[in-house]
Amino acid sequence: MSQRPWGPPPPGNAPGRAPAGRNPYGYNPYGQAPQGWGGQRGPATNPYGRPGLQPYGQPPRGPAPRGRSPIRALLMTGVVLGLLMVAALAVSNVADGGTSDTAYQNDNYQVPPPDTSPPALPQPETYDEAEQLLVANPFYRQATPTPVRCDADPIDVGDASDSELEEHFSGLMECLVRVWQPPVEGARFQIVRPTVTVYGEEITTRCGKSGVNAFYCGADQQVYYSNLLDDAVPVVATDKWGADVVMAHEFGHALQARTAILISSQALGQQAGDESTELGLSRRLEVQADCLSGMFLRSVSGSLRIEQSDVRGILDVYRAVGDDSVSGDADIVGNHGLARSREYWGQTGLNSGDVSACNTYTAKSNLVR
């Protein structure tokens, strides 16, 4: 089977024990090995159209989350959940480059160092609570600060050494935490700054064994990046923001984990017991991470000096990892979303600072196809 970077976890390894504390699932839900995937790029068109909001204007409010019934029943069965996520992004409208007079937001916040012993991830106690966390999470009621300073430059991942890659990505994680700390903590969750480990062809982590890939591992809440990823997916190297797009998406999964969206989505997918529902929830999870990564780029586009001329290349990174682009099958029903869906949600994030815009769990099914 061909190597496919940024894919979902397989049925995988035997799970480890859960961390201390109440765990309705019975086992460590994040103990499975990641699996990669890849393929050729899809067409450079967006059948969904492009939103046209100003990057720093007042974002529109998303649809109000639907209500739910009171708590029904406690989860009684163990759930074994993997936690590897695809990396891709898109950009629509970007800001002009920042100047010395720019009033950057959240600039006095002291970003903590990478946390190698992070607090346990939050998790729902019932399936009903899990659904509430997907459609009406308090995270959706927050907004990202904009503009935010990010002292980073594009990196040539093909020529950079492992130490240079780790230094660059560690700096990017600092920027990501600076953007996302206010909305995460505003929703009464904890944010964690992950380490970034650069590796070669294969690595064994607490999530199991992975080949050429980029992924977030929920078992240790850290991020991993293969130095061969640019060979597997050339757009990562040919677009100057490609690698940062990848890592902003992976941090999107870290946000989902820290706000209990990730475990809730995967628990409900397994509880449903049918492949169609599980695939649909997986796609909503993945394109939400695309949206969150686009929202990050919106916040830092001024300080990074992302130009309109960069837009098409970043959009191509999204499209390159659509299920149809990867498989070559235009009719595929996959677990990450078609190229057009991934581009649409990346653009949605780029055009809004309101986290509710990324609530893919209340979106129409044709937008998460």
From TrEMBL:
- Residue ranges under compositional bias (Pro residues)? 1-13, 111-122
Official protein name in the record: Neutral zinc metallopeptidase
Taxonomy, top ranks, is: Bacteria, Bacillati, Actinomycetota, Actinomycetes, Propionibacteriales
Location in the cell: Membrane
Q: Which GO terms describe its cellular component?
A: membrane
Q: How does it sit in the membrane?
A: Single-pass membrane protein
Q: Which key words are in the record?
A: Membrane, Transmembrane, Transmembrane helix
One of the Pfam families matching this protein, by short name: Zn_peptidase
